Amino acid sequence: MGRGRVQLRQIENKIRRQVTFSKRRTGLVKKAQEISVLCDADVALIVFSPKGKLFEYSAGSSMERILDRYERCSYAGQDIPTPSLDSQGECSTECSKLLRMIDVMQRSLRHLKGEEVDSLSIRELHALEMQLDTSLKRTRSRKNQLMVESIAQLQKKIDQREDSEPQNLSQGLASLAIPPCEPPHPLPRPTSPPPPLSLGGTSHRNEVGDLDAGTLIRPTNTTLPHWMPRLTGE
């Protein structure tokens, strides 16, 4: 039974796709080399990977020579107007002028970087110094301007914060204020103690001093409360 025709389609798996690309690219280069050797043909191969990496191969001649040959063959059948000698001379003069300007600008840039200054004369070095000094002054002026603007912005923020702090402080104190307490009620003043009583011949000691042992306190006619029993001395 014959083998069916395989339908070509893009490999969805990225890893398998990369492996297949490497294998097929190697095989393609090998085939190009074979046809160049076997048939004495100029072969140029240009391949870009899916990630944009360039792979090229040329057999028999350089890549530039093969591409130049390809361009000549491509435009051979087209009617290309032949430029006149005057236009060719103007283009050549313009190109030479542009090339000289590019060379002068590149040399000046190298001098500004401090390169290739050994061949300069005193006048050229002085002119270069003046140019660098002017550039340095402009750079410092711009830097100082940016610093002043930055300081002004910071000062403005500080002033705004200082203006808002007293208001926030007063609001915080108002929220933390304690209501005034009522004054405490005065305590009742203690009354004077009742006079000491003495029964019989018992001696009495007061705060002033000791009484004589034989001194007796005579009973008084003080009326006692109704709940205290009456005591009479013998």
UniProtKB/TrEMBL annotation:
GO terms for biological process: positive regulation of transcription by RNA polymerase II. Residues 175-234 are annotated as: Disordered. Residues 1-61 form the MADS-box domain. CDD domains: MADS_MEF2_like. Pfam families: K-box, SRF-TF. It comes from the Eukaryota. Residues 88-182 form the K-box domain. Its main location: nucleus. One of its GO terms (molecular function) is RNA polymerase II transcription regulatory region sequence-specific DNA binding. This is MADS-box domain-containing protein. The lineage of its organism: Eukaryota, Viridiplantae, Streptophyta, Embryophyta, Tracheophyta.
